[in-house]
C-alpha cells in the first residue's frame, strides 16, 4: 500500500528533515512578533468602546461632540465617635478638601456642608470632586491625591478618610490585575512543570512542552499588540491569553510526545515513531486547534467589542500553539531522539507504554463496558445534579467593589458609601442634546425634568447639571433610588427612561436624551449578551458539529460530542452559580459570594469549554476510530481507545485543571469565577465524561457510531494515521525494547502492527 500522509504528518516529516529551519524559523517568528508588539504597544479599550444600547449611545454622543466627562471621585470622611457637627469633624473635612485641592489635580470640589452630603446619622460626609484631564488616564494620575489624603488623615485620630471613584476604582483593579497576572505566571508554570515531571519522569520531556507553550504565549502577546491597533482589547485579555496558551500549548505537546514515546515502547524505530505520532496525535492537535479557534470565533457574534478582543487573543494563541506543536516540536524531538528521556527522575517509572486491544480493561472501564446503560444513567444524573443550580443563575456587570477582594480598602469604602448614601457612587448620567441648549423651551424642559424626577421618588438629590453650550449638550447626573444596582434602582432606571424623560426632555425642539451610568451600562450590557446567546450558541454548535462530521464521517459521533460537551458546560454553570451566587463553599476558594455571576462569564465560559472539550474528545475518538478501522469490533475499539488514551487525557486534564485552579486563587472576583468554572468543568470532562459517559454511550450505540447516510458518502475519507503505521517497520523483537505480545497488538496484529 502506498503511504498517504495527512497535513499533520506532512508537516511533521518536513520539520524532522529540516530541523534547523523549523527551529530557528520559530525562534525568529517569536522574537520578531515580540519586538514589533513592543514597538507599537497594546491599544486598550476606552470607556466608550465598552458601551452598547442606550448607554452606549450616550457615550458616543459625548465622544462625537469631543466632550470628556472628568472622572468623578468621592472622599468619605467617617468617624465612629464624632458627628458632622463636631469641630474636630469639620476640621477633618476642611483638611480633606485642602489636601485634594493642593494636588492641583481636582476640579469642582464640593463641600459636604454646602452640598448636603452628610449621612443621616451624621457620622459620614462626602467630599465630591472630579479629576482634571482625560478620564481614560485618570487612574494613572490619581496616586498624588491618594498620598495627600493619607498624609492628611494622619493628623486626625478619630476620623478616617476613604476614597472611591472612577479613577480610584480602576487603579485598584489595574493594580490587582498586575499582581494577579504576575502571581499566575509564577504559580501556573511551576505547577504545570511539576505535573509534567510526574507524567514523563524525565526533565527534558517535561520542560519541552512548557517551553513551547510559553514561547507561543509570548509570540501571541506580540501579535495581539499588533491586532489591537484594529480591535482594542480589555485589560484582562493578556491574562485570558496566558490562561489559554498554557493550557492548550502544554496539552498539544503532551499528546504528541506521549504518542511518540508509546510507539517507541512498541518497538518502532525513531523515524517511524515520530511519523506515526505526527499522523495521529498531530492530526488530533490540528483538528482540536481548529475546533477551539472556531468556537472562539463565536464571540464575534456577541456584538460587544470586549468579546471581539477575547476572541482574537484566544484564536491567535491557540493557532500559534498548534503551529508550534506541528513544526518546531517534531524538529526538536528529531534532534533529541531518545535523549528526550534525559534527566530521569529517580522513583518515577515510565508510564508511556503501548496499549493493545486484547489487554484486560481496568476495573472501572471493565465495569462500564459490561453495564453501559447503568453507568450512562448514573453519570448523566450526576452531571444534571451539578447543573441544577444554574437554573437560577443571575448575571450582572460587577462593580469595582464587587470585583475587588472584600478586604480591599477601596472596596470597603465603596460599600460604606452605598450603605450611607444610596446611589451616590453610581448616579444615572443623562446625556441631553438639543437644537439650542440655551433656548427657553430647552431650559424649561431641564427644569421640568428635575421637578418630575424628584417628585417621582425615583431620583434623589443632588442632581448635578453641566451645560456645554458650544456643543448644545447638557450632562445630568441623577442619583437613583436604591443602592445603585438593586431592584429598586433598576425600577428607577426604567421609569427614568420610559416615563420621566419622554415626558420632559424629549419634548424639547430637536432633542435627544440617552441614559448612561453604571446601572444603565450593566442593564444594556446584559440585554445585549442575552440577545447574543442564540447566535453565538448556534454558530459554535453548528460549526463544531460540521467539523466533527467531517473528521469522523459519522453524524452520531458528531452529535454525541455536542451533547457531552454541553453537559460539561452546564455542570460548570451550576458550580459557578452555587459558589459565587449562592455562597455554597465560597470560603473554600477564598472569597465571599457577591450574589451574581459576572455578566460576560457564561458566554465566555461556554465558548472556551466547548472548544477545550473537543481536545479530549477528538483525541480519544480518533484512537477508537483508528482501532475500528483496523478491524476491531465496536466494543473492542471503544475499550482500546479509552485505555490507550486514559493516561494522556488524565495527565492533560490535570495540567489544565491546575492552570485554571491557579486563576481561581487570584484576588479578582472575575478570575475566581473563571478559574473555578473552567477547572471544575475540565476535571469532569477529563474523568467522568471521557472515562464513563463517552465509553458507555459509544458501547450502547454500537454500530450506529459508524453509520453514515448514503447522501453523505461524498465526505472525504481523511487519513487517521493507519497508513503511517502500516508503512512503518514491524515492532522489534529485541528483548530490551520489545513490549511483548500483550503490548504489541491484538493476537492477529490488527491494532499496532501491519495489517
Distance between the termini: 10 Å
Quickly give the structural class. alpha+beta
Strand order of the largest sheet: 2-3-1-4
Q: Indicate the overall shape.
A: elongated
What value does the average pLDDT take?
84
Q: Kindly state the percentage of residues in helix.
A: 55-70%
Tally the beta strands. Answer: 10
Strand content: 5-15%
Radius of gyration: 30 Å
The main pleated sheet reads as: 4 strands, antiparallel
Total helix count? Answer: 27
Low-confidence stretches: 350-358, 719-755
Brief write-up:
The chain has about 750 residues and is α+β, with helices and mostly antiparallel strands.
Task: Report on the architecture of this protein.
The chain has 755 residues and is α+β, with helices and mostly antiparallel strands. It contains 27 helices and ten strands.
Write the layout of secondary structure elements.
Layout: H1 7-17, H2 19-40, H3 47-50, H4 53-64, E1 71-78, H5 87-102, E2 106-110, H6 112-115, E3 124-131, H7 138-141, H8 143-153, E4 160-165, H9 166-200, H10 203-227, H11 237-265, H12 270-297, H13 305-326, H14 328-336, H15 363-370, H16 372-387, E5 395-396, H17 400-403, H18 409-420, E6 428-433, H19 440-456, E7 464-468, E8 473-478, H20 487-503, E9 512-516, H21 518-552, H22 555-581, E10 597-598, H23 601-629, H24 634-664, H25 669-701, H26 722-727, H27 741-744
Parallel strand pairs: 5-10
Antiparallel strand pairs: 1-3, 1-4, 2-3, 6-8, 6-9, 7-8
Helix pairs in contact: 1-2, 1-12, 1-14, 2-10, 2-14, 4-21, 5-8, 9-10, 9-11, 9-24, 10-11, 10-13, 11-12, 11-13, 11-24, 12-13, 12-21, 12-23, 15-16, 15-25, 16-22, 16-25, 21-22, 21-23, 22-23, 22-25, 23-24, 23-25, 24-25
Amino acid at each position: 500500500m502506498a503511504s498517504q500522509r495527512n497535513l499533520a504528518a506532512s508537516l511533521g516529516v518536513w520539520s524532522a528533515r529540516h530541523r534547523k529551519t523549523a527551529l530557528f524559523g520559530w525562534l525568529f517568528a517569536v522574537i520578531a512578533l515580540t519586538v514589533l508588539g513592543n514597538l507599537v504597544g497594546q491599544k486598550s479599550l476606552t470607556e466608550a468602546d465598552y458601551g452598547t444600547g442606550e448607554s452606549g449611545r450616550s457615550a458616543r454622543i459625548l465622544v462625537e461632540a469631543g466632550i470628556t466627562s472628568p472622572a468623578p471621585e468621592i472622599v468619605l470622611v467617617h468617624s465612629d465617635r464624632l458627628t458632622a457637627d463636631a469641630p474636630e469633624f469639620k476640621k477633618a473635612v476642611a483638611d480633606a478638601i485642602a489636601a485634594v485641592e493642593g494636588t492641583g489635580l481636582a476640579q469642582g470640589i464640593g463641600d459636604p456642608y454646602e452640598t448636603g452630603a452628610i449621612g443621616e446619622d451624621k457620622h459620614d460626609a462626602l467630599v465630591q470632586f472630579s479629576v482634571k484631564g482625560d478620564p481614560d488616564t485618570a487612574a494613572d494620575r490619581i496616586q498624588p491625591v491618594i498620598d495627600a489624603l493619607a498624609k492628611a488623615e494622619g493628623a486626625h485620630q478619630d476620623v478616617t478618610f476613604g476614597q472611591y471613584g472612577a479613577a480610584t476604582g480602576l487603579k485598584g483593579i489595574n493594580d490587582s490585575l498586575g499582581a494577579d497576572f504576575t502571581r499566575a505566571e509564577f504559580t501556573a508554570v511551576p505547577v504545570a512543570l511539576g505535573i509534567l515531571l510526574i507524567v514523563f519522569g524525565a526533565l527534558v520531556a517535561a520542560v519541552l512542552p512548557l517551553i513551547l507553550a510559553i514561547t507561543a504565549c509570548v509570540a501571541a502577546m506580540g501579535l495581539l499588540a499588533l491586532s489591537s491597533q484594529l480591535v482594542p482589547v480589555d485589560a484582562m485579555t493578556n491574562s485570558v491569553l496566558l490562561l489559554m496558551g498554557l493550557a492548550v500549548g502544554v496539552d498539544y505537546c503532551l499528546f504528541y510526545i506521549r504518542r511518540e514515546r508509546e510507539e517507541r515502547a512498541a518497538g518502532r524505530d525513531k523515524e517511524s515513531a515520530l511519523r506515526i505520532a505526527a499522523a495521529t496525535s498531530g492530526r488530533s492537535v490540528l483538528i482540536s486547534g481548529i475546533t477551539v479557534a472556531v468556537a472562539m470565533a463565536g464571540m464575534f457574534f456577541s456584538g460587544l467589542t470586549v468579546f471581539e478582543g477575547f476572541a482574537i487573543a484566544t484564536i491567535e494563541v491557540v493557532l500559534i500553539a498548534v503551529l508550534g506543536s506541528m513544526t518546531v516540536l517534531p524538529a526538536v524531538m528529531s534532534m533529541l531522539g531518545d535523549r528526550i528521556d534525559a534527566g530521569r527522575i529517580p522513583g518515577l517509572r515510565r508510564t508511556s507504554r503501548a496499549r493493545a486491544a486484547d489487554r484486560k480493561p481496568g476495573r472501572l472501564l471493565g465495569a462500564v463496558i459490561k453495564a453501559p446503560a447503568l453507568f450512562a444513567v448514573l453519570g448523566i444524573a450526576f452531571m444534571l445534579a451539578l447543573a441544577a443550580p444554574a437554573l437560577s443563575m443571575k448575571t450582572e456587570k460587577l462593580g469595582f467593589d464587587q470585583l475587588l477582594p472584600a478586604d480591599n480598602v477601596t472596596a470597603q469604602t465603596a460599600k460604606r458609601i452605598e450603605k450611607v448614601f444610596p446611589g451616590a457612587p453610581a448616579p444615572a448620567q443623562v446625556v441631553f442634546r438639543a437644537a439650542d441648549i440655551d433656548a427657553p423651551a430647552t431650559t424649561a424642559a431641564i427644569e421640568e425634568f428635575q421637578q418630575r424626577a424628584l417628585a417621582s421618588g425615583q431620583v434623589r438629590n443632588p442632581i448635578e447639571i453641566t451645560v456645554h453650550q458650544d456643543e448644545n449638550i447638557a450632562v445630568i447626573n441623577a442619583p437613583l433610588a436604591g443602592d445603585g444596582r438593586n431592584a429598586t434602582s433598576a425600577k428607577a432606571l426604567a421609569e427614568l427612561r420610559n416615563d420621566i424623560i419622554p415626558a420632559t426632555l424629549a419634548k424639547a425642539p430637536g432633542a435627544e436624551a440617552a441614559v448612561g451610568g453604571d446601572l444603565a451600562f450593566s442593564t444594556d450590557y446584559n440585554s445585549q449578551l442575552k440577545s447574543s446567546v442564540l447566535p453565538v450558541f448556534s454558530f459554535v454548535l453548528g460549526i463544531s458539529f460540521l467539523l466533527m462530521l467531517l473528521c469522523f464521517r459519522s453524524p452520531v459521533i458528531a452529535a454525541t460530542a455536542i451533547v457531552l460537551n454541553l453537559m460539561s458546560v452546564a455542570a460548570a454553570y451550576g458550580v459557578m452559580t452555587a459558589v459565587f451566587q449562592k455562597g455554597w463553599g465560597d470560603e473554600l476558594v477564598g472569597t465571599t459570594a457577591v450574589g451574581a455571576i459576572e455578566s460576560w462569564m457564561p458566554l465566555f465560559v461556554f465558548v472556551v469549554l466547548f472548544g477545550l472539550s473537543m481536545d479530549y474528545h477528538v483525541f480519544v475518538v480518533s484512537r477508537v476510530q483508528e482501532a475500528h478501522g483496523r478491524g476491531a469490533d465496536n466494543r473492542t475499539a471503544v475499550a482500546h481507545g479509552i485505555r490507550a488514551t486514559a493516561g494522556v487525557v488524565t495527565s492533560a486534564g490535570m495540567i489544565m485543571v491546575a492552570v485554571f485552579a491557579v486563576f481561581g486563587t487570584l484576588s479578582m472576583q472575575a478570575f475566581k469565577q473563571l478559574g473555578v468554572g473552567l477547572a471544575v468543568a475540565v476535571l469532569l470532562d477529563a474523568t467522568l465524561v471521557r472515562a464513563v459517559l463517552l465509553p458507555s454511550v459509544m458501547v450502547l450505540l454500537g454500530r450506529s457510531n459508524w453509520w453514515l447516510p448514503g447522501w453523505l458518502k461524498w465526505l472525504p475519507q481523511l487519513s487517521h494515521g493507519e497508513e503511517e503505521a502500516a508503512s512503518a517497520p514491524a515492532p522489534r523483537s529485541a528483548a530490551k525494547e520489545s513490549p511483548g505480545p500483550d503490548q504489541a497488538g491484538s493476537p492477529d496484529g490488527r491494532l499496532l502492527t501491519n495489517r
